[in-house]
Amino acid sequence: MGQAGCKGLSQSLLDYKTEKYVIAKNKKVGLLYRLLQVSILTYLVVWVFLVKKGYQDTDTSLQSSIITKVKGVTFTNTSELGERLWDVADYVIPPQGENVFFVVTNLIVTPNQQQKTCAESESIPDALCYRDSDCPPGEPVVAGNGVRTGRCLRVGNMQRGTCEIFAWCPVETKSRPTKPLLGKAEDFTIYIKNFIRFPKFNFSKTNVLDTKDKAFLKSCHFGPENPYCPIFRLGSVVSWTGSNFQEIALQGGVIGIQIEWDCDLDKAPSECNPRYSFSRLDNKFSENSISSGYNFRFAKYYRDGAGVEFRTLMKAYGIRFDVMVNGKAGKFNIIPTIINIGSGVALMGAGAFFCDLVLIYLIKKSHFYRDKKYEEVRSVMLLPLQPGGTFVGAPLIRAPLPGLETLPWLDGNAWCVTAGPLGGPLEGPRKVECSENMLYRAGFCLRAAGRRKGLQRPWAGDLVSRPDSAAICHVTSDKSEASLGLSFSLRERASTYVLGFLDLVVLVGWG
Amino acid sequence: MGQAGCKGLSQSLLDYKTEKYVIAKNKKVGLLYRLLQVSILTYLVVWVFLVKKGYQDTDTSLQSSIITKVKGVTFTNTSELGERLWDVADYVIPPQGENVFFVVTNLIVTPNQQQKTCAESESIPDALCYRDSDCPPGEPVVAGNGVRTGRCLRVGNMQRGTCEIFAWCPVETKSRPTKPLLGKAEDFTIYIKNFIRFPKFNFSKTNVLDTKDKAFLKSCHFGPENPYCPIFRLGSVVSWTGSNFQEIALQGGVIGIQIEWDCDLDKAPSECNPRYSFSRLDNKFSENSISSGYNFRFAKYYRDGAGVEFRTLMKAYGIRFDVMVNGKAGKFNIIPTIINIGSGVALMGAGAFFCDLVLIYLIKKSHFYRDKKYEEVRSVMLLPLQPGGTFVGAPLIRAPLPGLETLPWLDGNAWCVTAGPLGGPLEGPRKVECSENMLYRAGFCLRAAGRRKGLQRPWAGDLVSRPDSAAICHVTSDKSEASLGLSFSLRERASTYVLGFLDLVVLVGWG
Amino acid sequence: MGQAGCKGLSQSLLDYKTEKYVIAKNKKVGLLYRLLQVSILTYLVVWVFLVKKGYQDTDTSLQSSIITKVKGVTFTNTSELGERLWDVADYVIPPQGENVFFVVTNLIVTPNQQQKTCAESESIPDALCYRDSDCPPGEPVVAGNGVRTGRCLRVGNMQRGTCEIFAWCPVETKSRPTKPLLGKAEDFTIYIKNFIRFPKFNFSKTNVLDTKDKAFLKSCHFGPENPYCPIFRLGSVVSWTGSNFQEIALQGGVIGIQIEWDCDLDKAPSECNPRYSFSRLDNKFSENSISSGYNFRFAKYYRDGAGVEFRTLMKAYGIRFDVMVNGKAGKFNIIPTIINIGSGVALMGAGAFFCDLVLIYLIKKSHFYRDKKYEEVRSVMLLPLQPGGTFVGAPLIRAPLPGLETLPWLDGNAWCVTAGPLGGPLEGPRKVECSENMLYRAGFCLRAAGRRKGLQRPWAGDLVSRPDSAAICHVTSDKSEASLGLSFSLRERASTYVLGFLDLVVLVGWG
């Protein structure tokens, strides 16, 4: 690129290129477009900016730590356990106070189990037997409690018995009590301490009132007036999930406690409050389904004086609490703001695209707007002229101009003919005699002709046949390529009418 | 659609339609646009591509597995427990080595609790009593340890006592030691083994050096020179969070250990390294708050020779470690690359939109550019002519052309009049004699007129009143609609000047 | 803004402005653009809409609850433990049935440990000693089991011994068995109950067949024909991860069980099915690495008749199962649909941008299309004329027109000269005699001139020097600014040819 090119480039660098628009004074499409614009603007302002806070940078990767503590004691008096008091160390499993914890509400206790042989429980189908051969020794009972010893134990004169097994004996045989053992657990309280931190904004908060008043946390209860006292009554939590406490205490269940922090850090930190929600997480919808409820077995191991190990097996029913923390913090940031505005503008482009489709395809006058919207340019390839050929009076090569048919008042027979100078290269013009009605431009003889379209009677004949009508092919030569601007004009009644313009690029070559 | 239409469609399918731009040689707006372009490009390249690696497909759903192991023993000698050695099985709860584990650092032990009656602790307000009636039998003490039996126990001659309760007796009465029992836990080590896998890219890695040298993991310590030896001294971890070990050992606390894997899989796998960060997750900001610290109670259950159950209650203070793994892997993918470039280009559209607003509304010459940018086209509705009416010499219906006022040199009085053929349909032209200064086109007689705007003296009179000025309404007929291209030209001093063009669609109908 | 302005505004509000397009009849670029369009459309339809279901609003924050239950018993007979039956309460840690649980498959038991003094294990390097002074009393053995008492214990005549320590004695000395103790755990079954809920759509489902047939869950096994029976054989799970059960049982390991819910809520709820996948989460790739496997130590605490505490230490090897639930639900929503379509259209804009680059820079005829695409407008600053100056015959100020050089048939010497009325303001036209070849417009005398570019022989001389060629500067005056439309036309052979148009804004002032 030369010096001039450089200068031109640096000048054109500061040119602003803006799309050329065609104003279609069509009220229907205009209204449609305005409606779309208003919809997109409304969507942008209301949904993206007000509801979704699109002007904020968000942090959803919160660091959260949960400490839970259950409080409450209850007293039971059963034939099996005798008088017994239950405190936290007894009924909360595991004891660590993490985000998942379990409160025992019902219990099947099988005390003093030892490793020895006894009869398998009758409720296990695989253990039923009629004779010893039904109990292959060494084989475990499917879904049972032990390994068969090879004997079939029948009580009294019964024909059917159960296999003898080597197991923790006696095996668990009792079925679930019909009344929860710890029905009074309803009054226990759960204290949930949640500390969160949004690392991106270095913002942290806790859901507990930051007070030095020791009495506060000992006496308060959670409620609308006390949102920063996260002490919940167990019965209330269950009822908030829509469940019945005595039912869930009997069968067991899983309750989710969601804590949601939706913080707008453009506001004061005190506006960033936790929101609690409670839901039943096992399928309560099928109360009688065999898969409902929650229970598990665990054992406490002891040794007697002789060092023999024995255990107390417990099948515990109860409520498992899953405390889950979600959070989102947002703070104003210029990048998402710009991106969201940008996408909104891009969306308007989509709206314009849709309206364009309507304008140029669907409405009645669509072909008119289509013609206005699209301006046609194309390049034409002309066949090379024979060197040394004469063209004055000789038949010229007629190159049909594919663009001409789009001129509304010419039919497809329009053409433009060109003839190069005799035997010479394109560069350097020569004096060339053009035939009548032809024009000499940049070394070419040019003639254009056409016929009025859509008229039965000839419309003033060929353009070239009348002295007052003519076509100009103005040509700029650039090696083997010439830009050709074709304008049609007509003289009639002493006035000259310019009929139209057509821009073409003619590629000319000499063999 | 006919055969010709099909051919035209298939031809126009390969046309490329490109927006027409107006080059506004306005340096200010040009500079503004270039600045916006550079900003967006910089944003795209630096932020989207270099920082956010927008050319990569990312996988954030990593599969992670954590195995932790604490090592270390310590020896204590207290009046309560006597000489005692603490090893991992004693002080780590739970023992499984999962991602959340707790190291006991302080302990209140209440040994040999049995289910019987005793006096409630004096520190519980609800248990205070003056007489037996203050202790309704069967009612649990609020935030207490047992159920009231109905008696008020007063020591000596004290007026005030505490209710007798049925509970695990004796109740816990001691307060927190002032010095942590396991203060030497500072020297314990934590080994954190983390295995991750990005399922989308089937890439897996571990944070432990893959060596067969058994001595390596026994002797190494984590540090900048040993990033693949994830063995941490407990005291160091605490100090990295900015906390004091002896303080946290006394009160308890929660420490988060974040492991972050930010892997660029376009690089070598060895470049994908874990990054560790340590933070205090309970609210250290309020050291003296009643809600700070971390502790829980648990019990070990025993049976004596007579089979009576007793337990040792422990209130454990300590440090809970939450190991959290985050990860992100990215690998080049063509789809996000294209989408990000596309959004960048769309954003440039938004920049152009902004510059357009400046160009056509804010700058001084905005109305000039507005005229250049927007090319007006519209359709005009003409009132139907009466069938059988004559128009030669008769007053024609003057349809004001709403578009004409935008021609800068005509005032609002410009109009175009049309007249259809006598009594005939639009199709098929007829020989019609048009009156003077009118032109015959496609079956219409057309006349246009206007007055030069902004001049007091008439500007060469009406266009129609001079033989050397004329308007051409070239009309193409398509049923009831005609496209009308109106050009104004003027002959003066033997030259013909084309003054302007206006495109209109005229809808004509006969009643 | 006046009343007229308001009316104009309200009218133009319903105008639809559509981009003007230039149709480039270039088959290559057209084909390229169509290909890009088809690619983007395919991407949009296939990837965004069919694969990614971009027309749906999605919820990925599912609430999930997992309940697990292991079943199976096994019998072992070792010299250490004697005959022993293992049931769930023995080998599942922790017992609660949460999403992470551990099944013991191998065990090193060190029974009857008591707090006393004994020799440290010989496998610990730090405990080796030759004399008592090697064992500083009170110092814990690094990576050992206790605290040194100060004595060096040598067996027989050995020179080397180990320090005596205070610890849980005897210390663990056995090494890992070469055959897994609970090798038959292969036949245990895991029952995984998973309840999920998508809160946004209030849709919940469980992975267990909702039946009242109690026998179903007792007999069924997971398989393609039984997807709603989530009961897995432990050995099968291990083999599905590509591991060998006996190996993993020996060393321990971690297995991840992923449950994926990918729900299309536009379909029936029964189409929303869980998908299970199983993977090994510890680094199986380095079987012999020292860091492979999974084990931990825990203890069972007892008291003997005298109240002395003793414990059984167990080093448990086994399989940890991590059940992980992922989920995504989608439901048709108009907003993401519109946004995705909009981004697709915006992406087409990016495609057009790319094709534009090709069209106007890369192809051979690019400069031609560049000229067609960009229409140049600019404003020109003219120097103020001297008040009272005469311009008839006097040298006029020649303002070079920077835009003229873009007219292809004029060289850079083109100019337009203007002259204001004698001593008067711009408003109000006066009768001014313009010199020859100048035109009077809106109070200005205008003349334009140029020279045909690229031709050695002068092209009909200066435009102004021929009576049949002329330039019209039509001027509208607006205070100190005049819009100037310049058209070049040429009369030749009795025809008038309009050569081109150039729009300029001329700022004129009088000092």
UniProtKB/TrEMBL annotation, chains A, B, C:
Keyword ATP-binding, does the record have it? yes
Membrane disposition: Multi-pass membrane protein
Q: Which residues form a coiled coil?
A: none
Q: Which GO terms describe its cellular component?
A: plasma membrane; postsynapse
The Swiss-Prot or TrEMBL record annotates one GO molecular function as: purinergic nucleotide receptor activity
Q: Which Gene3D superfamilies match?
A: atp-gated p2x4 ion channel, atp-gated p2x4 ion channel domain
Give a GO biological-process term. Answer: calcium ion transmembrane transport
Quote the InterPro entries the UniProt record gives: P2X5_purnocptor, P2X_extracellular_dom_sf, P2X_purnocptor, P2X_receptor, P2X_RECEPTOR_CS
The entry's localization annotation reads:
Cell membrane; Membrane
Q: Which residues cross the membrane?
A: 31-50, 341-363
Functionally, this protein is described as follows:
Receptor for ATP that acts as a ligand-gated ion channel.
UniProt record similarity statement:
Belongs to the P2X receptor family.
Please state what the protein is called.
P2X purinoceptor
